[in-house]
């Protein structure tokens, strides 16, 4: 199963705790508070408190998104002002009051810019994950067998219909060559052409060729072979239908 788990486009996303609103906004308070506690416990860090608070903002943006990150910036700024910049209230502070406020302004600016960048990356990652989930659901609910292979013709994914068609569980097929199921290799010419071109706009190729069930029974397979890319590498999707004529 490890090989199947490594094929991200066909995994369902796990429900993450950071998707709940109260958890997301809780991070905006938790991480800056943790940074303040660490600095207070280590007075030597009080001379440069901004770095830990900046780390708290970055983590919040990465885990919870842009809006909680802005709250983390506001809370961090308040804690820096009260605990580390105001010399009248504490002996521990960051330089003079004016100098500390100047640097706090720079901290706010940098924090906002980093939060926007990290949140954009996070949003793009989540959109990609949602797209993967839609494709996975499509594959799992399809009426035809679907097999995904890489450029070395190793099987990366099989859906439930493919397991039933070839009479083999996915765990036995993952990592195997497609030739185990299609020993005639009648797809090689089309596949080799796709490997060289990797043109996702190219019309999928439809071929009929003999297949083999795990028990050794022959099949006649109608296969539609298409290509796509994943992380800069070519992957190939074979949509198969068992067109074997029943024996009388």
Structure described in brief:
With 248 residues, this protein is an alpha+beta fold. It has helices at residues 2-5, 21-41, 49-64, 66-85, 97-141, 160-166, 170-173, 188-197, and strands at 145-150, 155-158, 205-212, 218-230, 233-242.
Biggest pleated sheet = 5 strands, antiparallel
Structural class: alpha+beta
Strand arrangement in the largest pleated sheet: 2-1-5-4-3
Helix content: 40-55%
The span between the termini is: 39 Å
Which stretches of 5+ consecutive residues score pLDDT under 50?
1-13, 87-96
Mean pLDDT: 77
- Helical segment count: 8
Number of strands: 5
Determine Rg (CA atoms, Å). 28 Å
Spell the H/E element sequence. HHHHHEEHHHEEE
Taken as a percent bin, the fraction of beta residues is 15-25%
Account of the 3D structure:
It is a single chain. With 248 residues, the protein is α+β, with helices and mostly antiparallel strands. 51% of the residues lie in helices and 17% in strands. A hairpin with a 4-residue loop joins strand 1 and strand 2. The chain contains eight helices and five strands. The chain has a five-stranded antiparallel sheet. The chain has two domains: 2-137, no CATH class; 142-242, Beta-Lactamase (2-Layer Sandwich). The chain has helices at 2-5, 21-41, 49-64, 66-85, 97-141, 160-166, 170-173, 188-197; strands at 145-150, 155-158, 205-212, 218-230, 233-242. Helix 2 runs antiparallel to helix 3, helix 3 packs antiparallel against helix 4 and helix 4 runs antiparallel to helix 5 (97-141).
